[in-house]
Design brief:
The structure holds two protein chains of two kinds. Chain A is about 45% helix and about 15% strand. By secondary structure, chain A is α+β, with helices and mostly antiparallel strands. Chain A has a five-stranded mixed sheet, with no helix packed on it. In chain A, strands 2-1-4-7 form a four-stranded mixed sheet, with no helix packed on it. The longest helix of chain A is centred in the middle third of the chain and has 38 residues. In chain B, the strands form four sheets. In chain B, strands 3-2-1-5-8 form a five-stranded mixed sheet, with no helix packed on it. Chain B has a three-stranded mixed sheet with strand order 4-10-9. A two-stranded antiparallel sheet of chain B has the order 6-7. Chain B is elongated, with a radius of gyration of 27 Å. The longest helix of chain B is centred in the N-terminal third of the chain and has 34 residues. By secondary structure, chain B is an alpha+beta fold. Classes of the chains: A alpha+beta, B alpha+beta.
């Protein structure tokens, strides 16, 4: 009378009932008891259904259905895709209440598992020949699986490499990866020298290497990146509070600045510090060099190139009056508003992109370019 | 003749007749300066050749389609290759292309020549209007201080002008068909195009690169005038600010302007109660970072990206249809109270986005941190609009 499935469900129901009683006796609160009792009732109900339909097996006296009933059909092969689909749904649900990244990962897993599951299910019904069905599945799924799998594999390798590289110090990174490179070369040489080696050994070695890489990447990623030093820019004052744009001295912001410019087609003006310490400018058009002011449009990024023809390192600074900033005490404070290039070596040039929101009449002395350390180098800037 | 054929014939005749339109201010076939003339000259080489080639090809296709149509006849014998014909059909198009390429490249190089220009004018496109500014320079007869205007560019006739253009937001394209070809204006880059007009007149154009919701409403005009008139125009653009007389409607308009408009619109010389200049900061309100300078608003005769006339239809006609000798004088007269197109200006001030589609609701602009694209609805009262119009009428 009791089928295999119903025995399992009856046993589970009895177990849940006993657990409900035990919980009720030993623990405070009723929610646990209610939950377990509900589970017992649900399992008992399912057991009843199972007994009624005899695990979906055909009745012994129904000879005609021996071949046509669903239970008579060949069971589908084992598949991981339903589990993967369920995992995707779980991750998606978690993502809904935690972060968007989980949600996206869940969607991706569900889509991939769903596609695989669909292809597999469809292929299983292609014919009665299992090998043919497997071939059909491969034909459908492999064009999707191989590139995606390769992309994911490469992504994991690159990501693991990057985590390790960012975890190690700059010097150690060089040493470590030089050693790894040498090790890979040695192993490859060894494998090439012994063509009779079992493929299982080769696969095992690669698997161990891959595992080590992923484990190393995960560990490095969890531990975090090394401290990466950020180079200051000319817009920030030095640690001593000195305004870089007012000084002819060299600061860290100047050390690695570019001394060449390629975007000549988009220039608004070229400003030159001449050998005799004057600032001259040239624009595309009939405004002659030496005219006493340069005009730039307002609220628009303008590329200005500074050319240093003097025989010392110099920077081009632009005085924009004052600006209001909020200090640490939350009070508004008026500060000098000066922007500048980094130090440019003799003969060098550097691009400066200027976007100025207010017209030059806002500054009592107007806007003007100057070169710290060269008193005679001054050029008015008019922003209408 | 079937109804379908008759409709097609009427449509074709209509299409051809459209080419005879007289009121076509953006007619590239009616050049008004040497640059547009070069393009026109090239057109008269390329288009006849292309037309004849097109006619021959279409005629052959028609003959072949008709003569060899399917009438149930057997498929004719198939042959492969006819070297003489193939060589001829390769050489002939190559010769035609070479014939077209030589004048085309020559024209392109001539149009790109800017060394001879004598005046520089900057144009900056933004959604959906053009700012025009004249930098301080020796050119243009000498400009002692920057001039900023919008929608209309004023140039002296017979003077090669270098237009240096860029954009503050998306790609726009500058095109005054009767003066030169079009030139894209790309943010972060500076593009040049040469303009020159032979005769005084008003030359219309419009943005020709799709740039968003009101692309079709982004127009511009070039006003060419004699060098003498141009000097007068420059002097007026640099005239000091004259405050309205106390107690007048315009004086109330000045207060309304300061309260409502000066956040974005600059009027040079306007001062607050302490005597400090009032500086508009459109970069804090508008995505492009700019709004038209209204210092000399009624010296020009269009508004809102040259989309609407500041002049009534009759007064506009009087200016646009005047001859070369008088157009400069009439343009320089600006907009008077009698000629003001107050209906459309009031509509604009009442609810600008309703008149010109714009993304001007700050609450719906998360992507731009609340910066609007275009002029928002300021919810001005009718009295405030009256005051502003009175104030703006004096800006000339």
């Amino acid at each position: 009378m009791f089928t295999t499935g119903s025995k399992f469900l009856i046993g589970s129901a009895v177990l849940a009932a006993i657990a409900a009683i035990a919980y009720g006796v030993t623990q405070d609160g009723v929610m646990g008891t209610v939950g377990l009792a509900t589970a017992a009732v649900a399992l008992a109900y399912l057991a009843g259904v199972n007994i009624y339909v005899r695990d979906s097996n055909i009745w012994e006296d129904e000879i005609s259905t021996l071949e046509s009933a669903p239970a008579a059909a060949r069971p589908p092969a084992d598949s991981v895709w339903p589990m993967a689909f369920g995992l995707g749904a779980a991750v998606l649900t978690v993502g809904l209440v935690t972060s968007q990244a989980f949600f996206v990962v869940g969607v991706v897993i569900m889509l991939a598992a769903g596609a695989e599951w669909t292809a597999e299910a469809w292929a299983e019904r292609a014919s009665a020949d299992e090998s043919f069905n497997a071939e059909v599945r491969s034909r459908i799924a492999n064009p999707l699986e191989f590139p995606l799998g390769a992309a994911i594999g490469i992504g994991i390798i690159v990501f693991a490499f990057s985590r390790i590289m960012l975890w190690l110090s700059k010097t150690n990174t060089v040493v470590f990866f030089a050693a790894i490179g040498a090790l890979i070369l040695t192993i490859a040489f060894f494998l090439a020298a012994r063509p009779g080696l079992k493929s299982r050994t080769v696969v095992g070695a690669i698997a161990v290497g891959a595992l080590a890489l992923v484990a190393g990447g995960a560990a490095a990623g969890l531990d975090g990146e090394r401290d990466i030093h950020e180079f200051p820019t000319t817009e920030e004052p030095t640690e001593e509070g000195e305004n870089i744009c007012l000084s002819p001295d060299e600061f860290e912001a100047d050390e690695k600045s570019s001394q060449s410019v390629g975007a000549s087609a988009a220039l608004a003006a070229t400003i030159t510090l001449t050998e005799d310490g004057r600032l001259t400018f040239a624009v595309n058009g009939p405004v002659e060099e030496g005219t006493d002011s340069l005009s730039l449009p307002r609220s628009n990024p303008s590329n200005v190139v500074f050319v240093n023809e003097s025989d010392e390192d110099r920077r081009l600074s632009l005085d924009l009056g004052t600006r209001t900033v909020e200090n640490e005490a939350g009070e508004e404070e008026e500060l000098e508003h000066v922007v500048c290039t980094a130090l440019v070596q003799p003969g060098g040039r550097q691009n400066q992109t200027l976007t100025i929101g207010a017209p030059s009449i806002v500054a009592p002395d107007g806007y003007f370019f100057f070169v710290p350390g060269v008193e005679s180098a001054r050029l008015a800037l008019v922003v209408p | 003749m079937s109804r379908r054929v008759r409709v097609a014939l009427v449509a074709a005749v209509g299409l051809v007749a459209a080419g005879c339109a007289q009121d076509a201010p953006q007619d590239t076939w009616d050049p008004a300066g040497p640059n547009a003339q070069k393009i026109n000259d090239l057109d008269w080489i390329v288009f006849p050749i292309a037309g004849v080639v097109g006619l021959i090809v279409l005629t052959f296709i028609g003959i072949i389609v008709f003569k060899f149509r399917d009438r149930g006849q057997p498929i004719p014998e198939q042959t492969h290759g006819k070297p003489a014909l193939e060589i001829a059909l390769t050489i002939l198009p190559a010769l035609i292309l070479i014939g077209i390429t030589i004048p085309t490249v020559g024209t392109l190089m001539a149009l790109n020549e800017t060394d001879d220009t004598e005046c520089v004018i900057n144009v900056t496109g933004q959604q959906w209007w053009w700012e025009v500014d004249y930098a301080q320079q020796d050119g243009c007869g000498g400009i002692s201080a920057p001039i900023v205007t919008s929608g209309q560019m004023v140039i002296p006739i017979g003077t090669p002008v270098l237009v240096r253009g860029t954009s503050r937001d998306v790609i726009h394209s500058w095109w005054i068909p009767r003066l030169n070809g079009k030139r894209d204006m790309v943010p972060g880059r500076v593009h040049t195009v040469r303009l020159e007009a032979d005769e005084p007149g008003i030359y219309a154009g419009q943005c020709t690169e799709f740039c968003g919701l009101s692309h079709a409403n982004m127009r511009m005009e070039v006003i060419a005038m004699t060098p003498e008139d141009f000097e007068t125009w420059k002097a007026r653009q640099l005239a000091p600010y004259e405050a309205p007389e106390a107690g007048t409607l315009a004086a109330a308009g000045e207060a309304t302007f300061i309260a409502q408009c000066s956040r974005c619109h600059q009027v040079n010389g306007l001062e607050d109660a302490d005597g400090d200049p009032i500086i508009a900061r459109p970069d804090l309100q508008v995505y492009s970072g700019a709004a038209p300078n209204l210092s000399y608003f009624t010296t020009r005769n269009t508004f809102a990206g040259a989309s609407w006339d500041l002049l009534t239809a009759e007064c506009r006609r009087d200016v646009w249809e005047s001859d070369a000798d008088t157009i400069g004088e009439k343009y320089l007269a600006g907009v008077s109270a009698d000629c003001l197109n107050s209906v459309e200006l009031r509509e604009w001030l009442r609810d600008a986005p309703a008149k010109k589609p714009m993304y001007a609701d700050a609450e719906q602009l998360e992507a731009t941190d609340g910066l609007v694209r275009g002029m928002p609805n300021l919810a001005l009262s009718e009295d405030q609009i009256d005051e502003l119009i009175a104030y703006l009428l004096e800006r000339k």
